[in-house]
Amino acid sequence: VVTPAWLASNTDRDDVKVLDCSWYLPNAGRDGVAEHASGPRVSNARYFDVDEISDRSSPLPHMMPSSTQFAAACDALGIKNSDVVVCYDGAGLFSAARGWFMFRAFGHENVAVLDGGAPAYEKAGYPMDVDVIEDMAFVSAATIASDAVANAGTTVTSTAYKPSQTPVAAGFVFTKDDVLTRCIPRSDAFSSEPAEFTLVDARPRARWAGEKPEPRPGVRKGRVPSSKCVPFVSLLNDDGTFKSKKSIINMFGASGVDILNEPVVFSCGTGVTACVLALGAAIAGRSRDMVTPLYDGSWSEWGSE
User: Fold this and answer.
1) If exposure means fewest CB atoms within 10 Å of the residue's CB, which of 1, 195, 199, 246 is most exposed?
2) Where's the Rhodanese domain (predicted)?
3) Number of compact structural domains in the chain
4) Together in a domain, 148 and 19
């Protein structure tokens, strides 16, 4: 993560690209694109739409795009492989982690999240862009990036941005079959085999426990068998910034997860707040060599089948 002070002193650098990754749950009554257009927003920020920069062929929300689609979006947003990418959102720390995770999954070296997001930046007194963007077709290239993703499809096209890896091959993304075979213990009358990975769910505990309904229609209550619950908000302070390294380790530990050493897979409702857990694990000191995969379909997929 980077602090508001660091970002304020670096927003004018040509190699620093600031991305507004604001996205909200369907029942939140907020619109990330509209809020970006109306302001206030961090100076020189461009809108990175996690809904649009996704696999358009999937019936599930904002699934990971193909390498070509991601590269096309980066080209449209003016992002180079050598750039320092800083993601933020309007909630504090919520969907920005999804943007961070996507860049990491495609092998981008220099990517960070603004700790505390736009609220922390504004509270610190740093100037924000307040001019309304009238032409919605050019909301910091959001629509251009969306169109680029749609046109790229999954075919090979020439792009200036070159992902250095694919999320699945690099171990950053788990499918439903991966969860079935690698995250759930197997046993029969004669033997038992422990799971290879622990699936950690970032949803509120009441949703994980099946005590409250899901916000998306058609998705049943409950959890993946043998999963553990670490609500993403438990890693954050009241102002939306991350807790200390020690506190994050302890929050995982309270749910029986050794975040520094245990093979884990993160899940949530639609693959967004699970990325907060992945970012928290990195802040806690988990080695970069210990990849923390995301179950991209998350409960929206598991709870619909």
Assistant:
1) 246
2) 12-130, 193-304
3) 2
4) yes
Q: Is residue 198 part of a domain?
A: yes
Percent helix, strand, coil in the chain (nearest 5)?
30, 15, 55
pLDDT of residue 140: 47
**CA contacts within 13 A on the Cβ side of 247:** 10
Instruction: Give me the percent of the chain exceeding a pLDDT of 70.
Output: 93
Token pair for residue 41?
A: 């927003």
Residue 236 falls within a domain, yes or no? yes
Read off the pLDDT of residues 64-85 as tens digits, 9 standing for 90 and up.
999 988 998 999 899 999 999 9
| More confident site: 66 or 192 | 66
Q: Is the pLDDT of residue 139 over 90?
A: no
Per the structure, the complete domain to which residue 244 belongs is given by: 173-302
- Do 49 and 177 fall into the same domain? no
145 shares a domain with 77: yes
Extract the tokens encoding 279: 């970012």
Q: What is the number of other CB atoms lying within 10 angstroms of the CB of residue 152?
A: 23
- Return d(Cα 118, Cα 259) in angstroms, integer: 28
Q: For residue 199, list its beta bridge partners.
A: 265
Asked if 146 and 53 count as a contact pair (C-beta separation under 8 A), the reply is yes
Per-residue model confidence as pLDDT tens digits over 201-240: 999 999 999 999 998 889 999 999 999 999 999 999 999 9
With beta carbons less than 8 A apart as the criterion, state whether 223 and 164 touch: no
Enzyme catalytic residues: 268
CATH of the domain at 267: 3.40.250.10
Q: Is position 166 within any domain?
A: no
272, 99, 263, 72: which is closest to 171 by C-alpha? 263
Same domain, 194 and 256: yes
